[in-house]
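To assess whether the prediction recovers the assembly geometry, we first specified each molecular entity separately, as shown.
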Amino acid sequence: MTRQQLVQLIRERQSYLCVGLDTDIEKIPQHLLQEEDPVFAFNKAIIDATRDVCVAYKINTAFYEALGVKGWIALDKTVRYIGNSHFTIADAKRGDIGNTSDQYAKAFFEAMPFDSVTVAPYMGEDSVKPFLQHAGKWAIVLGLTSNKGASDFELQPLQSDEHLYEKVLTSVSNWGSPDNLMFVIGATQAEQFVQIRKLTPHHFYLVPGVGAQGGSLKEISEKAMNEDIGLLVNASRAIIYAGKGEDFAEQAYKVAKEYQVEMAGYLVKN
Amino acid sequence: MTRQQLVQLIRERQSYLCVGLDTDIEKIPQHLLQEEDPVFAFNKAIIDATRDVCVAYKINTAFYEALGVKGWIALDKTVRYIGNSHFTIADAKRGDIGNTSDQYAKAFFEAMPFDSVTVAPYMGEDSVKPFLQHAGKWAIVLGLTSNKGASDFELQPLQSDEHLYEKVLTSVSNWGSPDNLMFVIGATQAEQFVQIRKLTPHHFYLVPGVGAQGGSLKEISEKAMNEDIGLLVNASRAIIYAGKGEDFAEQAYKVAKEYQVEMAGYLVKN
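The predicted structure of the complete assembly is given in tokenized form:
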């Protein structure tokens, strides 16, 4: 999916919501466990219910890998089921030396039809670049994350007088363009958003941490929206586990719809 | 596998060689392509040939993920085929917020029987700790890697007057112990090995970059061996692609045996 297509999708649906499919077999409603593929059955119901109010789905690969081969099958079925109507994100935090990153890009962009994959920057340029060489595909590189551990390394000050995550943003943005590169910026880091937007004015951010992790949608939207919106705000647990009974998909829709309505309000001002 | 068991294995086999199964379906001998699972057939032959001269196998997950579900099946079969006679490494460079890293640990330590997984440190403590909470299992955290991109971030000087990778080594070593935590240190970074050993005197290092990437086994062994050896030196392409014909496993054995003989020489002095 191109940047232009993504922006158009956001304007049409009046939403920059990304639904995170962190599907944990231990947390899905009991009645689904009799299905042949409970994880896929859960995802299918969530996708059917939320399609019209979101523009992206983020599949957290860890939850699928934890189930072994069966999980990898559910992952593959899920991304194919979503199809081309949404921007798809393999939230996989990959990254390795060049010839290995090439293989990861192949895994998510060729063996499976993902639009994008999240990438860890620690190993530098040759670990990121292979994800930027597929037309219409995106690398979403970790900038400043939403977790407590962000302070351990990401927020360390460098001798060049910037924090590590700022160095990552400025270096990595030279390796790609706003057409094939986004950054992960945690919603819990709202006080940094103005500075981050200064460093990378035109890039999209994938923003996790709203909902279960406590970030504010209002604050993020006010501080970080740009001329092309530039935001995909993700909620996972707050949406997909909104209900625990047979009406779980309906409950998920209600929460997703609330986010969409709130987002429509911020889009009016854009 | 415990540290004690690993050290004993090294002393018995007179080898600290790790064979890297970066098995690329486009590089394996043609005649294997008629097998039902060519990747597993290749791995099985390499494992049978090299078992006696190495103590570890490192499976680079990217090459398996690139094949989709079939690849994940080959990965699973390979680690089970190796069994308990060797230390097994899922070279997967994982790492995410706590609840997600938990799932990755489950994937490699429960759904599959790996002894260890390589972990990217960028996201800090809560992204690493879940890999340290499984008895007899190990996290192998990226310290200083062998690729060109290591200079982009890992070698950046911090205001605390250490390089980022040094901060990673000292911080991460407080989150675990030499009994459940190793570091990845690239063989091409030999000039840093003395300083790295000072910072982490008792930890094992997984050292890739010998062979195809040009690192020197002699230099690493002289600079970084400790009282418990403390080294697993990996070679992938140099061993597994030593031959291209029907005798590929025999050729792989010959190269692996050369490494083992050289290693035995360095072990005498230990």
